[in-house]
Amino acid sequence: MHALFPAETPPASAAAWSARMADSMIARHTPESAQWHYEHGLLWMAIAAVGRATGEERYLRAANAYIDAFIEPDGGIRTYRIDEYNLDQINPGRLLFPRLRETGDQRYEQAIRTLREQLRKHPRTQAGGFWHKQIYPYQMWLDGIYMAEPFYAACARHLGEPSAFDDIAHQILLIERQTRDPETGLLAHAWDESRAMAWADKSTGRSPHAWGRAMGWYAMALVDVLDDFPADHVQRPGILAVLGRLADTVTRVQQPESGLWYQVLDQGQRAGNYLEASASAMFVYALAKGARLGYLPHSALDVARRGYEGMLRELITVDEGGLVTLNRVCAVAGLGGNPYRPGTFEYYIGEEIRPNDFKGVGPFILASLELEQAARHG
């Protein structure tokens, strides 16, 4: 067993934590052993982003090996089934666009169109929101906005489908309207339009708590969707307003001493609650990117810096061989299902905590890239 020691915390620009973490994950995982799954797609997208930022081909080769392990000669996607109608399976498709641009290989075009076809047929609430999965009828989860909408926006731009942007905006605005607590500004993890689930409030349909990573997924979705969302679209100001409200709320619930964020955002220092890595990384990324692109005020970058410094100080360790570890990541959390997940405080804090989970490492790499870029530009 390697000895672990806390990460040093020099200025972000000096540390190059993005590359160090990407190298550590490449050393631990081969792309060929990955799955066509949202968290694997997230990790290899983040590693590809390191390649674009540094010009180092090894990162791009690793990410390309991931996507190429799944795209078959006829453009089919190995292990993917459209009839599952699972938004989680859309997210890895974001890696198809750069591969298509780089190679012109029509296999990638076919795979893009297959995933687009899922969204055409995906079941929806009566209000027009995508069900999170076919097995969760009439439920929208914040997670699902990240899983579907950034791909959907890239696809709408690629295929020349302006009406799709109306639908993307509808998804984003609908779930904020249905999950937002008007007093705190926090967003509940999910909304059940039918109110059939035991976890759903019978009046609002909301789940009981604001789970950190769910809001983190939503925050990342907003800044990533805007990459492809038309500048002159009538709903762009509405999406920017959502991002502004979210940033204000996230800033208010940042834990002052550490700069990190709690697993259950609406429960603060309640006994058992803990400062969780993936939510913290997601908020740092979204705030820093939003500030860089002018979507958020410069003060959002200061919030992101405090969060990032807290991550380096409290969550990052490095072993004697130089491999970087991100600690204290919630392994998974959901609602309903079998065994039943009730969305209670006790449920969220009782889920497994583990190191180097992709859902934390991917956002940490992306957050590192943003803070490294901000440091370079002063």
Features of the shown structure:
single chain, 378 residues, mainly alpha, two-stranded antiparallel ribbon, 7 strands, disordered N terminus
Report on this model:
The relative contact order is 0.13. This protein has helices at residues 12-15, 17-28, 38-54, 57-68, 96-103, 106-121, 142-159, 162-179, 212-225, 236-252, 277-292, 299-314, 345-350, 358-376; strands at residues 4-6, 139-141, 190-192, 316-319, 324-326, 329-330, 353-354. By secondary structure, it is mainly α. The chain has 14 helices and seven strands. The longest helix has 19 residues, at 358-376. The termini are far apart. Helix 3 (38-54) runs antiparallel to helix 4. The chain has a three-stranded antiparallel beta sheet. Strands 2-3 form a two-stranded antiparallel sheet.
Entry summary:
Helix content is 51%, strand content 5%.
Count of individual helical segments: 14
**Major pleated sheet:** 3 strands, antiparallel
Q: Please, what is the average pLDDT?
A: 95
Low-confidence stretches: 1-6, 8-15
* Helix/strand order: EHHHHHHEHHEHHHHEEEHEH
Neighbour order of strands in the largest sheet: 1-4-5
- What is the helical fraction, as a range of percent? 40-55%
Give the percentage of residues in beta strands. 5-15%
Query: Radius of gyration, rounded?
Result: 20 Å
Task: Based on Cα principal axes, name the global outline.
Answer: globular
The helix/strand class is mainly alpha
Total number of strands: 7
Distance between the termini: 40 Å
